[in-house]
Input
Amino acid sequence: MSFGDPNNPYGQPPQQQPAPGYGYPQQTPPQQGHGYPAAPPVQQSYGDYPGGYPGGAPAEMPGITRAARIMLAVLAVVHVILAGFYGYALSQWDQTMADAGISNDSETQQFADLGKGVIVFMLGLAAVFAVLGLVLLLQYAKGGNGIRVCSIVYGSFAIVTGIFTIAAYGLGLVVLAVAILLIVFAAKRPTAEWFRRPRY
Output
């Protein structure tokens, strides 16, 4: 008998396909060339940064993120200047009221005290925003996505500061422009990727 003789009782049994419907479900191999063409391969997450982390995160701070950091520093310095201005106004308040002759009348004294309270409130608010801006600024290199979100919120509040200080020698217009740039730069995709990068 020959090697491939199917009637040989001592040869290898012929390979048979199992009957459909028994055992595990049958899987047919996918047929190429039928129907629609195959989809292109899926790219990595957001971008390819040479020398970056897996998943497309940058290894160095992107330029737009550095620009957002600079805008944040400018806003923090402006708040420090505003706090100094309000502190100076508060230190001169009593002398200014005495020169205006307001210190004797009780009704006008109440209005003067109300004005002094507004100055104290604005001083405290400017000091808090200056400290918050400096803390955010120092966290840009190692902080997470919350720092980016806080920067956007900080820029939104800085817009309000710009509106209130618009009469102060054009300082408000500068604050408005810088705050809008901070919001735009912090909301960009490279900045988001920087703050979502893995930290080993």
Observations:
- The longest helix spans residues 106-139.
- The CA atoms of residues 140 and 147 lie 7 Å apart.
